[in-house]
UniProtKB/TrEMBL annotation, chains A, B, C, D, E:
PANTHER family for the chain: CORA FAMILY METAL ION TRANSPORTER (EUROFUNG) (PTHR46494:SF1)
Identification of the protein by name: Magnesium transporter
Family: Belongs to the CorA metal ion transporter (MIT) (TC 1.A.35) family.
Reactions the enzyme catalyzes: Mg(2+)(in) = Mg(2+)(out)
Organism encoding this protein: Acidithiobacillus ferrianus
UniProt-listed Gene3D superfamilies: CorA soluble domain-like (3.30.460.20), Magnesium transport protein CorA, transmembrane region (1.20.58.340)
Gene Ontology molecular-function annotations: cobalt ion binding; cobalt ion transmembrane transporter activity; magnesium ion binding; magnesium ion transmembrane transporter activity
Function per UniProt: Mediates influx of magnesium ions. Alternates between open and closed states. Activated by low cytoplasmic Mg(2+) levels. Inactive when cytoplasmic Mg(2+) levels are high.
Amino acid sequence: MLISCVVYNGDREQADIPLEEIPAYLHAPDNFVWVALQDASEDELRAMQKQFGLHELAVEDVFNEVQRPKVEEYDEHLFVYLQVPAYHGEEVHIGRISIFVGPNFVLSVRQNCEQALLGVRARAEREPHLLKYGSVYVMYALSDAVVDRFFPVVDILDDELEKLEIAMFHNQETRKNMERFYDVKYKVNVLRHALLPLADGFSKLYGGRVPALVDGAENYFRDVHDHIMLLNSQLDAMRDTIATAIQVNLSLITIDHGEVNKKLAAWGAILVVTTIFTGIWGMNFTYMPELHWRFGYPMALLIMAGCAIYLYRRFKKADWL
Amino acid sequence: MLISCVVYNGDREQADIPLEEIPAYLHAPDNFVWVALQDASEDELRAMQKQFGLHELAVEDVFNEVQRPKVEEYDEHLFVYLQVPAYHGEEVHIGRISIFVGPNFVLSVRQNCEQALLGVRARAEREPHLLKYGSVYVMYALSDAVVDRFFPVVDILDDELEKLEIAMFHNQETRKNMERFYDVKYKVNVLRHALLPLADGFSKLYGGRVPALVDGAENYFRDVHDHIMLLNSQLDAMRDTIATAIQVNLSLITIDHGEVNKKLAAWGAILVVTTIFTGIWGMNFTYMPELHWRFGYPMALLIMAGCAIYLYRRFKKADWL
Amino acid sequence: MLISCVVYNGDREQADIPLEEIPAYLHAPDNFVWVALQDASEDELRAMQKQFGLHELAVEDVFNEVQRPKVEEYDEHLFVYLQVPAYHGEEVHIGRISIFVGPNFVLSVRQNCEQALLGVRARAEREPHLLKYGSVYVMYALSDAVVDRFFPVVDILDDELEKLEIAMFHNQETRKNMERFYDVKYKVNVLRHALLPLADGFSKLYGGRVPALVDGAENYFRDVHDHIMLLNSQLDAMRDTIATAIQVNLSLITIDHGEVNKKLAAWGAILVVTTIFTGIWGMNFTYMPELHWRFGYPMALLIMAGCAIYLYRRFKKADWL
Amino acid sequence: MLISCVVYNGDREQADIPLEEIPAYLHAPDNFVWVALQDASEDELRAMQKQFGLHELAVEDVFNEVQRPKVEEYDEHLFVYLQVPAYHGEEVHIGRISIFVGPNFVLSVRQNCEQALLGVRARAEREPHLLKYGSVYVMYALSDAVVDRFFPVVDILDDELEKLEIAMFHNQETRKNMERFYDVKYKVNVLRHALLPLADGFSKLYGGRVPALVDGAENYFRDVHDHIMLLNSQLDAMRDTIATAIQVNLSLITIDHGEVNKKLAAWGAILVVTTIFTGIWGMNFTYMPELHWRFGYPMALLIMAGCAIYLYRRFKKADWL
Amino acid sequence: MLISCVVYNGDREQADIPLEEIPAYLHAPDNFVWVALQDASEDELRAMQKQFGLHELAVEDVFNEVQRPKVEEYDEHLFVYLQVPAYHGEEVHIGRISIFVGPNFVLSVRQNCEQALLGVRARAEREPHLLKYGSVYVMYALSDAVVDRFFPVVDILDDELEKLEIAMFHNQETRKNMERFYDVKYKVNVLRHALLPLADGFSKLYGGRVPALVDGAENYFRDVHDHIMLLNSQLDAMRDTIATAIQVNLSLITIDHGEVNKKLAAWGAILVVTTIFTGIWGMNFTYMPELHWRFGYPMALLIMAGCAIYLYRRFKKADWL
């Protein structure tokens, strides 16, 4: 589905044009065309492939649902494939954006991805001086927008993690907590797999030999790379935290067991000692003088209670109760 | 055992020929011959070695059962050794495919591998424009087909893992679950060892200096490399998940023990308190007035039941029961 | 907020000047100007951007609160972004310092950072021979001062860790201890994320190709890099220690449980044996001669006490009590 | 102790010669001499050092018992130091082989190593065409033979590991099993330390700049390197397996404890309930009608047995027994 | 404190000279001077700095107590900073040695380090042919001597570790054992941090571009590097062993608990069964014929003993006792 088709002319003004007029603009030296598709059909994409001379392998990647994010250089164009995360209720949803960039065109294809990226078009209007970098600026702005979408998702996970830590140190809902740690870890991994390959990909767009298209705009791609590295280091910190938390949690649970055990043992001791006394005075010996005392029974109860209280206090002092 | 011997001529048409006619076709500049063997005998392979001038070390590798997958450049030809996974019931079965590629020939040897790769031949007919890359195209198509065989196997393991996670969080069959986690981990490792060395091998076929044969077809090998990297990252995620799961599992088991312990302790307390009462009224003191009351016995039973019910409720409230 | 604006002239003397006079000094070949801002407003920074021709991306980084430390080379200037740790009570507080360095200017912006860095100005007076390196010397001195701020923070953490280890081996406050290990680990990670990217950044300022500005002063940046590496290796050692400590802690807790269990079991045995005797002599058999002995009861008590003492001694010897 | 001294002449025939005649053969362009020593004395080696101009540091390494395997290039010769594993009963024994290779000589010194390597001499006769590579062929053949000695040792360890896994999942001899896992891990580490440095060493003998001596024979050293990598990946897989197994084992033991606990608790409950009934009917209330019933006693026994059976069944159903 | 000041002249003879005469010898082309200081005062070192033109940063490093070992190239000289371990009772003590090497001088400064390194001077006399490498030989000999000091320390730790392993598998002093594992781990880390940076430092003195001073002596520094790598691999093996041991230890403790539990449970069962019998015969039913049998009591005791013995045997057989 076509979202927009814009031409940026030599003076860097922009105008919407119908798809059919693209060829008319392609050959003017300073022009470039940006075609934005959403959930493109194979036909639409094939038409674009013919129009812009896109490489077969890159076009196939657009339709491939399981894919690693990548920045690839082909003879005629660059191909960038990005994953965009979004929180849908409790789930992290991953959309896909493919960008083809040639000297005079940009083709962006959004798939399974609800978020409009038109903010980029507005930005292009706000920063006309950046349009001097040509079509590659649109790719930069799209990549930058996509990478920025990761920050709020990472923040939500970070908050979740903080809540889990607090619950952990208060031994609340230990079982449920484990499940949620596991879930956060899973989501962190999903985000990492969407980001890690990009760090490598964008690092090829600045420093050393860069594709001719990118020439002069390296600082902008270094900036995107830097954001990716920041996200990566945040995710790494979270992974590390979760790993430690899982181990600490086991220790806390074990400590808790130990405390429960001591409490039980203390009560057990108190009760068993009482039982021994009842056992002794329940014996059937003929000559047990205290059994015939007038106040033998209350004395017995007092002795039992006394022992119990004495033990209770000792255990209390030893912090077992 | 010979499966097929095909010649691709200058116009890229293909024709089956008998082995003996190979030399006749080898010297035409645009021709190349593809010989496909299955479970080749040493004699068959030696004949091919003489025919195509294959390197001794590469030929020996074909028969070596324990081998790392590899992509090796020899003076006269490339040698690719791949492992192909397949699910046989519960087991992952590993077949082997060796490919020799020279400027005018391809020799593929399938060993211990049930899956026919003739899909490749059909593909060559479907994509005649790719045959312009010559013999190396067949190697690409074979490699691509082999790597694609990994995806369904990885998917089955992923499903298995998901089932194990659900069982884990429901504390079902903990012991059996551990065994299956262990088994999945083993299979993941088998696949990783079949893939990891290939990532390295195929990365030498694009970017930087590539063997002359591959020249021009780098994008295709980058695509294969990309698939390998995707599989690797999926397998790494699974390894990570399993490692976490094993730790989480231990915590869950320990939590479970704690819950069982509390339950037992609570019941124990209820029973022991009851025992103390029976002990007290079982004592043989002469002066125990309540023993002689008319309703002393039912009162005793009521007191015991009352204490038991009271304790039961307290434990229930504290979530021990 | 402007802190100071100093000009260093050809003879390397320094003088405070008002901001408006900067342009007058910028074009003298041997002069350079150092402008120091604190918690700069956007307006202040934009004015400086215009004055010194700072790159848009670098200026944006100054205001970005979540950022990785970095050393970046732009066409016209270097940009260094550092994080400064400080202990506020129990918390590690992270301030930020951004430094822009061109051939004839230094702009330092301190944000959210209480510590004055004017020590650097005094140092410049003490080491006038180093001013021969020009503006880059100020950047070096600032970086050096920032990195030196890490040492006392790391030392405090190290002391804390040592205290926790001692507490751990004495099984004191196990639960609280875990929480504090976790907290130290968290702080170590915060420091690492403030340092790790710098190791990479400063390594680009010595050895191999260095930015023209830095030329001749490489040894000084190698020294800063060396301090960063020292801090990193200290933090790594602490991470490793904490990881081991958490595992050892679990073992110690488990050992402790085992000891408690043995103690309980021993007491349990002593009590239960006593109970058996009272049970036996509580039976109602008609013919139990000892029940009618004159000293049957004291004998019974002696036997019970004897058994208890015997068991107590055995358990004592086996180190269960 | 001299084992053999062989000269290979221009036509690649070989002949035993006495040590004294070596100089006569050294200067013929196509000749090379192979001297094989076993448990060489310092004197023997010093004589060889003078004869062939061996570097002092390399000669010292021969006598150094604790040493990392290595492949070193000196100005005048290559030096290869290898470790050879062998199973002596339950122990892995490590022998040492040092090889010096110059353009016209090979000196091999076997130390603390029972296995004869004369297979290499026979191989040289079987593969005379490979002798065209000169003295370096002998080094290759020796290295190849040494690396091949690792395979059976690794296989034995692999079998041992498999047996331990089976025992682990059947909870047999848990304590002994741990000890054997630990032992296998130790042996795996010994082998790894004998192999890892070689991977690095042999990788310098093919690809990129190789020592002049090796020129042309790179494929053979790549093959050795490949075997080393295969062994390494097998050992890595074993390490990984053992690490997982140790963790899984702890879980299995903990699960086992849980099962034992449940079983005990169930029996405990059955017994304690019985005890309560005996306690109740052991009380001394005057008015306890059932005590005087004709069949009160058998009824009591039946009730107790009934309760016990009922509980037994419930626990059985809940899988606690 | 000056230890010695030696001049090595063109014929490589050596002679002690007073400090004041150094300048006289510095300009002879073949001479070099070795000044050895111990616990140098700042004044002494400043004098040397002036004499030999040492770089400010290197001189500061000498007095810096917390420092990473390093090998640094300055314009005028090399600077090597080493840490020397020594066992003082149970503690590992770390001394420091700084070496400055220029074309015609060596300055060594020993700090906090009791071990004399004069062995190096004697070695120089024993190996006059090595003095052809000039001042750098002294640096080599000092470095070699320092690295050799690590071996006995590592050996002591290795022995300690072996003793701990044996104790671990015999479940002796589990708590103390943990503390000692922790202590060994700590010492291993101290040694690693003293060695790891050196591996990197010395690798820059051979292979690839080396400092001019070192030219020709690369093999000697490769040898030192090799010793460092050997030590590193030993320390890594120990780290790995300790990590495994800590995990195995937890399993062993848990297994031990399980065994104790089973033993307790078995005794518990025996005692409780006995209690039930005494409970039954302690009931007050009117019609309990066996109570009135002549040998009811001994029969009861026999039954109880019989049950106890039967259970004892069953538990013995099941290996619970």
